[in-house]
Amino acid sequence: PNAARSSAYNQTVTASGGTGPYTYSVSAGVLPVGLTIAPSTGAITGTPDTLGTFNFTLRADDANGNFGLKGYAVTVSAATITLAPTSVSSAPNGVAYSQVFTATGGTGPYTYSLGMASMLPAGVTLNANGTLSGTPTSAGTFNFNLIATDALGDTGLWGYSLVITPANITVSPSSPPDGT
Question: pTM for the full model?
């Protein structure tokens, strides 16, 4: 199976025919950087750290010196990065607002930024540490895409809608100024 960069990988190949025990090795090409094959078990394990497609030929030698070959390809793709929370709550206009976003998957630390065409309410900003905060100065619905970038440059993206509700205004005093 294919692999994700910075994620543990474990796949075992087996041989049949001939006389066991078998010894496994790479006879041509290379395994993805970060992966190795255990000669006695055929287990390919490790944590790949380079993107790309890797072609290699595995060799299985039996106890009598007979061998078999088989070609493989493993593609190492970018890690899947997910963001939390998946939605944000509405907030009243003119009241301090704060929301912390977190990312998982990939390799930390993460930095956070806004995607193209993102709109935040005036007075609210996103810090690179994933905190959206400030005091909004206008009501409305504000759509934005949040991007989390891990230490290796892999990214995750999630769309949000932040609804800023009109301020709840009360007028005082409750009786007319002339006292009637």
Answer: 0.71
Instruction: Name residue 25's beta-bridge partners.
Output: 59
Q: What is the 3-state secondary structure (H, E, C) of the chain?
A: CCEECCCCEEEECCCCCCCCCCEEEEEEECCCCCEEECCCCCEEEECCCCCEEEEEEEEEECCCCCEEEEEEEEEEECCCCEEECCCCCCEECCCCEEEECEEECCCCCCEEEECCCCCCCCCEEECCCCEEEECCCCCEEEEEEEEEECCCCCEEEEEEEEEEECCCCCCCCCCCCCCC
- Cα–Cα dist 23/27, whole Å: 12
- pLDDT classification of 167: cutoffs 50, 70, 90: confident
pLDDT tens profile 90-126: 999 999 999 999 999 888 999 999 999 999 999 999 9
